[in-house]
Specification:
- The protein has 125 residues and is mostly helical.
- It has 5 helices and no strands.
- Helix 1 (2-33) packs antiparallel against helix 3.
Length: 125
């Protein structure tokens, strides 16, 4: 579960953020076009519909945008934080997005090194 949250967390957070932004823009646009005062039910329905529509329309682009970070999260890449930050800040350029995608796909697993010390054979008696 922790791996799933680590992988999909950025995309879900971004889609909710952009969904609420879309809803605010949609509501401000419809508020300027109405000639009559809407009922409270229409306002609640409009807000709910705009938020749901905004979240749905922003989920797919957010998942595509954060695809390199999700791949790195699923692979337990040791460079996950770096991939996520570069993806967040430079992913809007295609060069940055493809660089993150290649980095996430080619990054190896965490390497665990175990040192075993051998002191030689046991002493003879």
């Amino acid at each position: 579960m922790e791996k799933l949250i680590k992988s999909f967390g950025p995309a879900v957070g971004a889609s909710l953020f952009f969904g609420v932004l879309f809803a605010l823009f949609a509501l401000s646009d419809t508020a300027t076009r109405t000639w009559e005062t809407p009922s409270p039910f229409d306002v609640i329905l409009g807000v709910f519909g705009a938020v749901v529509l905004g979240v749905i329309w922003s989920i797919v682009p957010a998942f595509i945008y954060f695809c390199p970070a999700m791949i790195a999260g699923f692979k337990d890449s040791p460079n996950y934080t770096g991939i996520f930050l570069v993806n967040l800040l430079a992913g809007w350029t295609l060069v940055g997005w493809f660089a993150c995608l290649i980095w996430a796909c080619t990054g190896g697993q965490k390497v665990v090194v175990q040192h075993i010390y051998h002191q030689g054979p046991p002493p003879l008696r």
